[in-house]
């Protein structure tokens, strides 16, 4: 079982990025529907009932034309239906709570919304053509026993060229599912590496693709990702490259990134590479950065030392302060 430091670190990083939990809402839900909130009833100060018209049952809601969603407004964190909008609803069974509250069974079935961020997105007027609906239907079909090869291929296509609303989610889902990743071909992995290296506009998507490829431990990945350090001026991407370098190559990651550093022509390229070196959090990176730091005040080197976070790195930065 290879749910090792690589998997744990990548999943922690993914969890830190906002709005990337649609897939989790779909998987965790007892029912997934495209619905529209048509009525709101204040049952008490602690409970609001929302009547949903079911426009499309993705899974779990059977033939019900309407369902009731329980909202507990006194809770600090909760989601609530939005009136008159067609949205995807990821719902968890609330029949036991409804029974305790003595709600009439004729108003059921009763659900509550899952808590995952991003799990209640808008759906377009043409439901069958909506990318989010199609993604939810794909995961539902997979859960119902669809051929893993077909599911993996469809997710790969979405991750490569799908709509912005779901392509990052598809990449993250594949990262979390070793059984589906194993169904992808060498050609598909080459395409994913190329897209991870070439994406420059959607940084969260680029990071998701990079982590997907890292989970597969693909040869040459670190070098491919390092090419866009600098052109992509987002420190989170540089940190991702550093973490992936450490996880794939350990102490040797520093030498690989230093080789690229020697070819850096622009200041932003150099700064991004140094930040990635610091983010490896390795002893070899610390030694290299301390060596560079002795040459004089250099903001890029100091930023990389701060990124390293080791006591020796922080002491070195503190000594350089005026």
Structure overview:
This protein has about 325 residues and is α+β, with helices and mostly antiparallel strands. Among the domains are: about 30-115, Beta Barrel (OB fold (Dihydrolipoamide Acetyltransferase, E2P)); about 220-320, no CATH class. The protein is built from 16 helices and 5 strands. The protein has helices spanning about 5-15, 20-30, 95-100, 130-145, 150-160, 165-175, 180, 185-200, 205-215, 220-225, 235-250, 250-260, 265-280, 285-295, 300-310, 310-320, and strands at about 30-45, 45-60, 65-70, 85-95, 110-115. Strands 1-2-3-5-4 form a 5-stranded mixed β-barrel. A hairpin with a 2-residue loop joins strand 1 (about 30-45) and strand 2 (about 45-60). The longest helix has 15 residues, at about 235-250.
Largest β sheet strand count, sense and barrel closure: 5 strands, mixed, barrel
Helix-and-strand structural type: alpha+beta
Give the overall silhouette: elongated
Query: Roughly what percent helix?
Result: 40-55%
Q: Tell me the series of helices and strands, N- to C-terminal.
A: HHEEEEHEHHHHHHHHHHHHH
Distance between the termini: 51 Å
Q: List the strand order in the largest sheet.
A: 1-2-3-5-4
Q: What share of residues are in beta strands?
A: 5-15%
Oligomer class: single chain
Give the integer mean of the pLDDT values: 90
- Using DSSP, what is the number of strands? 5
Features of the shown structure:
single chain, 322 residues, alpha+beta, OB fold (Dihydrolipoamide Acetyltransferase, E2P), 16 helices, elongated
Explain briefly what this protein structure is:
This protein has 322 residues and is α+β, with helices and mostly antiparallel strands. It contains 16 helices and 5 strands.
């Amino acid at each position: 079982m290879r749910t090792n430091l690589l998997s744990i670190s990548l999943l922690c990083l993914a969890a830190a990025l906002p709005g990337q939990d649609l897939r989790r809402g779909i998987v965790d839900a007892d029912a997934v529907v495209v619905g529209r909130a048509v009525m709101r009833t204040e049952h008490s100060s602690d409970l609001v009932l929302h009547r949903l018209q079911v426009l499309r049952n993705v899974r779990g809601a059977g033939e019900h034309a309407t369902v009731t969603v329980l909202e507990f407004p006194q809770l600090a964190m909760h989601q609530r239906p939005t009136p008159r909008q067609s949205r995807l609803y990821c719902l968890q069974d609330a029949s036991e709570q409804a029974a305790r509250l003595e709600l009439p069974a004729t108003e059921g079935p009763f659900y509550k919304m899952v808590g995952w961020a991003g799990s209640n997105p808008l759906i377009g007027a043409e439901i069958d053509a909506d990318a989010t609906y199609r993604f939810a239907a794909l995961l539902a079909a997979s859960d119902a026993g669809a051929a893993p090869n077909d599911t993996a291929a469809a997710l790969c296509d979405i991750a490569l060229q799908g709509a912005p609303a779901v392509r990052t989610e598809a990449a993250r889902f594949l990262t979390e599912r070793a059984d589906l990743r194993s169904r992808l071909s060498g050609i598909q992995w080459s395409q994913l590496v190329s897209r991870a290296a070439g994406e420059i506009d959607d940084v969260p998507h680029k990071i998701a693709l990079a982590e997907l490829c890292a989970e597969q431990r693909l040869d040459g990945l670190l070098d491919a990702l390092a090419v866009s350090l600098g052109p992509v001026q987002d420190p989170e991407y540089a940190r991702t490259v550093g973490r992936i370098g450490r996880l794939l190559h350990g102490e040797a990651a520093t030498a690989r990134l230093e080789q690229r550093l020697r070819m850096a022509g622009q200041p932003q390229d150099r700064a991004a590479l140094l930040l990635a070196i610091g983010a490896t959090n390795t002893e070899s990176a610390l030694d290299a950065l301390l060596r560079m730091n002795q040459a004089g005040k250099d903001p890029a080197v100091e930023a990389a030392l701060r990124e390293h976070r080791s006591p020796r790195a922080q002491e070195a930065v503190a000594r350089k302060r005026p």
